[in-house]
Amino acid sequence: MSGERTPVEHLDVLVIGAGISGIGAGHYLKEHHPEKGFAILEARAASGGTWDLFRYPGIRSDSDLHTFGYEFKPWRDRQAIADADRILAYLREAIAEDDLEPHIRHHHRMVGASWSSEEARWLVDVERVDTGERVLLSAGWLFSAAGYYRYDEGYTPRFEGRERFGGTIVHPQHWPEDLEYAGKRVVVIGSGATAVTLVPAMAGTAWHVTMVQRTPTYVMPVPRGDALADLLRRVFGEERGYRLARRKNIWKGTAVWRFCRRFPKASRRLIRRVVASRLPEGYPVDEHFDPPYDPWDQRLCAAPDGDFFGAIRSGRASVVTDRISAFTERGLMLESGREIEADVIVTATGLNLQAFGGVELTVDGEPVRLADTVAYKGMMLSGVPNLAFAIGYTNASWTLKIGLLCEHFCRLLTHMDAHGYDTCRPEPADPDMATRPLLDFAAGYVRRAVDGLPRQGDRMPWLTSMSYHSDVTLLRVDDVADPELRFSRSAVSVRAVTT
């Protein structure tokens, strides 16, 4: 691909993914760089990413929309922990308000990209998913807004005897529209956010829903609405009220996370007390809701208005903590010897991580091995020019960080334009700098993929910050120029200036 010289369409920025991150990137590019040509590639037929892809019952956010929403677009709905259809409508409004639709190219999947230092451009191999046609695009910058998990498949561990089960098995990432579970026995395998969402959503229709988990998990009831945010909007108006509510929730979320990390024993006691108050008297709280890890070693699961615990109290749902020995013709056999009968089994067993959509990258003919790179400010890769990516927080609302990254990216473009640079490459001053995994998170989906992901360093700007307030300084306030960020002009640019 690097030897291709056929004239191709050239773009200043090529954004990968039309989900919440890609839509945000489009807004900031139009606001700060209206002169630049850009396109947003989306492999699917519709925009919205996660919020258009997942269709399982009850799908919702697990962060409040005053922080999960964009800083530039107020969230006006009364639901603070919002259902997917409301979030999708919000994202589609953002597309319409910024007139981004002409920039979005549906059914376009990036297959690979090759960087040429001589020409200071990426040559991008794109597949038209609907026709199978392959096209080439040229771009000065790639901005990966594809998230970090695979859209085409979820994670399902191998279960002995799965083929024997006589009922229906479904993964939440591929929920069939015609799945009928009314009056049936449903088993949900897993205990993450998806499982905690599915249980109460299905319990109202199914005969009974049983959540089977290997180890206890933290589940916290949270209000679905935000009364103070509603009051702030009424008193100060939509725009200012939203800004105040956003600040309040950023402070609240940060305070909760810091308290949990600093005082894990006190946090465990507090969470247990809250959970016990939502369950029937005498319920075995420790058996099911006292994990072997501390709060925020993994992300806490949220139960809006305590709906998960309400389903248990009603008798329509139950939790079993045990390991699965095998599938049987009638359901699941557990290691304890207990068999759970089921008509429908939902494998809410997690995600598969996939950095940069799984595309192949080369720089001047040399393949990029992600595990050999180090993340610069959590948004670029060492040794890889003109490539930015957007990965949000694991301990707070995803979009809080995306907005800061997009702002910083636009500031970087402004700096390069002002000084006549066309190439930007992060390079550690100390090539022997100690590194550790990019995501310091104990979730199973992270542990399974960590060896194939970029690394982070032991100091700034190579640390991947998970602090919004630190990132405000790093990404919004501090100068974009940095000794470990190398700017240059390509040979083509120099020739153009001298002729």
Automatic annotation (TrEMBL):
<keyword id="KW-0560">Oxidoreductase</keyword>
<keyword id="KW-0274">FAD</keyword>
<keyword id="KW-0503">Monooxygenase</keyword>
<protein>
    <submittedName>
        <fullName>NAD(P)/FAD-dependent oxidoreductase</fullName>
        <ecNumber>1.14.13.-</ecNumber>
    </submittedName>
</protein>
<dbReference type="GO" id="GO:0016491">
    <property type="term" value="F:oxidoreductase activity"/>
</dbReference>
<dbReference type="Pfam" id="PF00743">
    <property type="entry name" value="FMO-like"/>
</dbReference>
<dbReference type="InterPro" id="IPR020946">
    <property type="entry name" value="Flavin_mOase-like"/>
</dbReference>
<dbReference type="InterPro" id="IPR051820">
    <property type="entry name" value="FAD-binding_MO"/>
</dbReference>
<keyword id="KW-0285">Flavoprotein</keyword>
<dbReference type="Pfam" id="PF13450">
    <property type="entry name" value="NAD_binding_8"/>
</dbReference>
<dbReference type="InterPro" id="IPR036188">
    <property type="entry name" value="FAD/NAD-bd_sf"/>
</dbReference>
<comment type="similarity">
    <text>Belongs to the FAD-binding monooxygenase family.</text>
</comment>
